[in-house]
Amino acid sequence: MATAIRLRRLGAAAAIATVSGGALQLNQPSFAVNDRGGGPALATVRRRIADPNAVVPPRSVQESALIGASSANPLDVLVIGGGATGSGVALDAVTRGLRVGLVEREDFASGTSSRSTKLIHGGVRYLEKAVFNFDYGQLKLVFHALEERKQVIENAPHLCHALPCMTPCFDWFEVVYYWSGLKLYDLVAGARLLHLSRYYSAQESVELFPTLARKGKDRSLKGTVVYYDGQMNDSRLNVGLACTAALAGAAVLNHAEVVSFLKDDGSDRIIGARIRDNLTGTVTAPFPSLLLKSLTVLSAPGQEFDTYAKVVVNAAGPFCDSVRKLADKDARPMICPSSGVHIVLPDYYSPEGMGLIVPKTKDGRVVFMLPWLGRTVAGTTDSNTSITLLPEPHEDEIQFILDAICDYLNVKCLTGRFDLVDPMVEAQRIFITLTDCYNVEVDATRIIKTREAAFSAVLELIHKLGKAYITVRRTDVLSAWSGIRPLATDPSAKNTESISRDHVVCEEYPGLVTITGGKWTTYRSMAEDAVDAAIKSGKLSPSNECLTQKLRIIGGDGWDPASFTVLAQQYIRMKKSHGGKVVPGVMDTAAAKHLSHAYGTMAERVAAIAQNENLGKRLAHGYPFLEAEVAYCARNEFCESAVDFIARRCRLAFLDTDAASRALPRVIEILATEHKWDKSRKKKELEKAKQFLETFKSSKNAQFHDGKH
Ligand SMILES: Cc1cc2nc3c(=O)[nH]c(=O)nc-3n(C[C@H](O)[C@H](O)[C@H](O)COP(=O)(O)OP(=O)(O)OC[C@H]3O[C@@H](n4cnc5c(N)ncnc54)[C@H](O)[C@@H]3O)c2cc1C
Predict the structure, then answer these.
(1) Where does the record place the Alpha-glycerophosphate oxidase C-terminal domain (predicted)?
(2) Does residue 683 lie within any of the structural domains?
(3) 31-62: b or e for each residue (b if 16 or more CB lie within 10 Å)?
(4) Ligand 1: centre distance to CA 389 (Å)
(5) Most CB atoms within 10 A, among 44, 134, 442, 574?
(6) Nearest atom within ligand 1 for CA of residue 340
(7) What is the CATH number of the domain that holds 93?
């Protein structure tokens, strides 16, 4: 008996993706069968992921593992798409003891999964529908999402937290309506409740949210109801999932695209895929292991190779129809794409720990303003769209958000399009809006000839009103992005018109399981369902059941909200310059907090690089991102391009396009050292990253400065 247990432990230890001769061996872990929710299997996987010395094998090793999966020795599961869903599937499958590969066309989270609202939510709106339509299906969705909300927050505590959200009420009916609705949300959450919702008077509300308007046109604030949902750093969570899957033994490869399927001649079953390496330039391994000394450059640009698997899982999000079409060119579309735009405003628009959500504006839309990574994210309801590779926000969508938030803020709109219209007409429009609201008399007929004159006339008016108003300006938009939601119809459902907010798992072509729909919050259970379907399809033999309910992602195990204090104490806060002046060193409290949240328990590794390798400077003034992060991400998080860093590893592109642009030369310099890029590659990286930032539509002359730019 004792021997059997020991053997089992040894077997599990051998399950770690071992590196030999430059190839990743995807060994089968031998966990106890039916080991769901705990037991030795979970303990083993946890130990492996939480091992402080564990190193994620680099991209070149991942690629050789995929190349090594032949028809005679196929993977169990090949996942297409490295968004939240695909990365979740890879993690679920590998921790069940299956041999797993994942390919992502661009970067992990480069699709919808980095462009979300960043809420981990149960879906209060579905609850409203459940109640008013007596719809049990909607209620089930809410129960399910609330359960998953709790799990996501618990499993990535460094990247997720509870966020209070304020709902303003402008009449007493609204107070009663939202209070009772949100109390019901608390009730449905039960043991999964984050914090109880509660009512605040108008006075208390503006103390909590100083920019909230107490008075608007024909109405005054009666109070607010504050409830809680979760908030996350979406792309870092996504990259964390992919890296955790890699640590557990999956071969995960970004910048690798499925271009066609391999089919069995006899049965027509899909048995693998042809993959194109999309990375330009050559790849060398910065892996610090002696075992890898023999590893040479594995891929030339655009190189294609085949990889075989018993089952392929299509998790390509909005692009899952194009993947289905690779299997059957006549495949009927199942995705109904809808797009949402977000803008980022300076921090002073919302207080640090409180969001504002207006469930129904005058025209029935949702509007929200949420604090996120030290700035304010604002957005509104999605609208129909077509699928594009790099969705861009339109100017009118940005303008719509600016106009919509104006109605709820103690700030007045100067969203005038001075660049597009006659300045006098525009100035008059703003004059009239202001005088309507504040009942003051002004001369709106004076002749204004230039844009500058129009602008200063409006400022003069605001001054005349005698109140300390700030204004919502287009020039305050630091960044703006658009994302495509993969709403899905079930191709096997009788009523194909019905678009589901739930996810859909189907296998229309033997060997290809498609998983899509759902939302970020439910990625884990979507993955569980997809892996169950893959096991059935491929008659696979997992060694244990799903473990992801209680599996913390890399950096999460042992993390504590106070972990940043260790960084702040152990790393240099101040140092003497050559001239003897005392200057800030690598670490201050803001940097320590940022590293601790972004990297969890791995933050110490980043801090050590900062201190020991002279990479402790900030990448952009006013932001806590350090040079050391670029090196760390290149070594440990498959950061293969400048865009991978500024958009998905650190969030500068999303937070402040101009700051991201200014940080680029240094980011590229560090990546060039890590990946041994030559001059032409560096030039290409700069061009590509600048083009990418163009899609973020910040204001060209943003007026928000922290004084250091
Ligand atoms: C505006 C907006 C706001 C949202 N807000 C929230 C929110 O607050 N909370 C929430 O829970 N949910 C939210 N969602 C929903 C959530 O973001 C998505 O459901 C989720 O991110 C989808 O993840 P995915 O992995 O299925 O798709 P994606 O993240 O798009 O991943 C699919 C991946 O497949 C890759 N791919 C495509 N074709 C190929 C190929 N041939 N080979 C290899 N790879 C390929 C793509 O490059 C892409 O990275 C929001 C969605 C939108 C649009």
Answers:
(1) 546-682
(2) yes
(3) beeebeeeeebbebbbebbbeeebebbbbbbb
(4) 12
(5) 44
(6) 1
(7) 3.50.50.60
Q: Give the pLDDT confidence score for residue 426 in this predicted structure.
A: 59
Tell whether 11 is covered by a domain.
no
Q: Which atom of ligand 1 is nearest to the CA of 485?
A: 53
Average predicted confidence (pLDDT) for the chain: 84
Confidence of residue 630 (pLDDT cuts 50, 70, 90): very high
Q: Output the CA 343–ligand 1 centroid distance in Å.
A: 18
pLDDT digits (tens, 9 = 90+) for 557-602: 999 999 999 998 888 765 666 676 665 666 889 999 999 999 999 9
Same domain, 516 and 603: no
CATH number at residue 381: 3.30.9.10
Which of the listed residues 518, 550, 582 is the one where a domain comes to its end?
A: 550
Q: Which among 99, 51, 97 has a CA at the least distance from the CA of 75?
A: 99
Report whether pLDDT(708) > 50.
no
**Ligand 1 atom closest to residue 483's alpha carbon, by position in its atom list:** 53
Which ligand 1 atom is at minimum distance from the Cα of 338? 53
Residues 171 and 62 in one domain: no
Domain that holds residue 325: 42-114+236-287+297-334+490-550
Burial class (CB in 10 A: 0-12, 13-18, 19+), 27: middle
Positions of E strands within 264-415: 270-277, 304-314, 335-345, 355-358, 367-372, 375-380, 383-384, 411-414
* Residue nearest atom 2 of ligand 1, based on CA coordinates: 116
Of the pLDDT bands very low, low, confident and very high (cuts 50, 70, 90), residue 292 is very low
Using the mean position of ligand 1's atoms as its centre, give its distance from the Cα of residue 427 in Å.
41
Mean pLDDT confidence for 161-176: 96
Same domain membership, residue 327 and residue 342: no
- The alpha helices in 361-422, defined as continuous H runs, are 395-406
Please give the distance, rounded to the nearest whole angstrom, from the Cα atom of residue 237 to the centre of ligand 1: 13
In a domain, 14, yes or no: no
Same domain as 196, residue 90: no
Contact call for residues 27 and 17 (beta carbons, < 8 A): yes
Q: Is residue 213 domain-shared with residue 347, that is, in the same domain? A: yes
Q: Are 265 and 276 found together in one domain?
A: yes
